[in-house]
Amino acid sequence: MTRSQSLIFIIVLTIFSYSCAYAQKGQHQFRLALAQMYVEPGELQKNLVHATSLIEEASRKGADVVLLPEVMDLGWTHPSARLLGDSIPGGKACTIMCDAARKNNIFVCCGIVERDGNNIYNAAVIIDNKGMVICKHRKLNELDIAHDVYDQGDRLNVCSTPWGTFGLMICADATAKDHVLTRSLGYMGADVILSPSSWAVPANHDNTREPYGDTWRNAYFPVAKEFKIWIASASNVGPVTEGPWKGWNCIGCSLLIDTDGKEVLMGPYGKNAETILYAEIIPLKRPARGTGWTGR
Fold it and tell me: How do strand 65-67 and strand 30-36 relate by DSSP bridges?
């Protein structure tokens, strides 16, 4: 074999080996981390430092995407939102999360409080591994008891990623009548829906007698199955110290639902149940949505 033939053989063998490895992993497969984060209400700096450490840990353990909870910077309905809410992008919380995504070469999805002029929003972002905000959402189906803290969102958004189209919603958006918001993301082409959440119960809740989670299973299962979408929701843990649910506890129970509408994993329950859950996600290739698309 001549030197040139040997070189060609090596190149062909290298390409073949790479192709086999690529096919084995799957073109659209990625590792998702659900960070069930302990949030200290109103403690902006502490929460941002803590969130950064969780992002770093997820990256070290091979995650491509990390999902953090709803308003993980201040806690749901904490009155500090009016004082500490900041712009997206450019504000303190968003900038720190963008820097963490870039430094750790990881996509980050998280809920943060947004200020836009005189308005305050319960918002969430998807940030790419270059530190750029590629999707933003302002919560639409906010509970009535939170309307004195957060203003009303007015649209849904999806974004393109290396693993397909990601949709973004927040917590109770999933429980809108007839699952209209979640299903709309399906019609918009989402292959994966990420949902920062903050699930809380009264302090005397007995999880043995009343296991938490059916509200979200009932919201997620039908849409995931109908549209063949992965749905991931990360909820925080810790006490609620201010606002309408003062005295309640956020208890985790983060969920991941697959394209058959089945529960893949659920996080532990409890106000101190901080953890990071990991899963391999393979979004399905689906036909283009046109008039009359009803899922498959």
Answer: parallel
Extended beta strands in 68-181, E state: 107-116, 119-127, 133-138, 157-161, 164-168
DSSP 260: T
Question: Which DSSP symbol is given to 86?
Answer: B
Q: Please give the DSSP secondary-structure letter assigned to residue 64.
A: S
pLDDT one-digit tens code per residue, 46-66 = 999 999 999 999 999 999 999
Tokens 């981390």 identify what position?
33
Length of the chain equals 296
For residue 187, count other CB atoms closer than 10 A to its CB. 13
Instruction: Kindly list the distances between the CA atom of residue 263 and the CA atoms of 190, 213, 230, 233, 247, in Å, as whole numbers in the listed order.
Output: 19, 11, 10, 12, 30
DSSP secondary-structure letter at 270? Answer: S
**55 close to 100: Cβ distance less than 8 angstroms:** yes
Q: How far is CA 207 from the centre of its chain?
A: 24
Q: Which residues contact 42 (CB under 8 A, 6 or more apart)?
A: 74, 75, 78, 79, 80, 84, 241, 242
* 8 Å CB contact between 254 and 264: no
Per 3-state DSSP, the chain is made up of helix, strand and coil in percentages (nearest 5) of: 30, 30, 40
- Domains of the chain from N-terminus onward: 28-281 (3.60.110.10)
pLDDT tens-digit map of 69-106:
999 999 999 999 999 999 999 999 999 999 999 999 99
Q: Cβ atoms within 10 A of the Cβ of 27, count?
A: 12
Quick: pLDDT tens for 194-248.
999 999 999 999 999 999 999 999 999 999 999 999 999 999 999 999 999 999 9
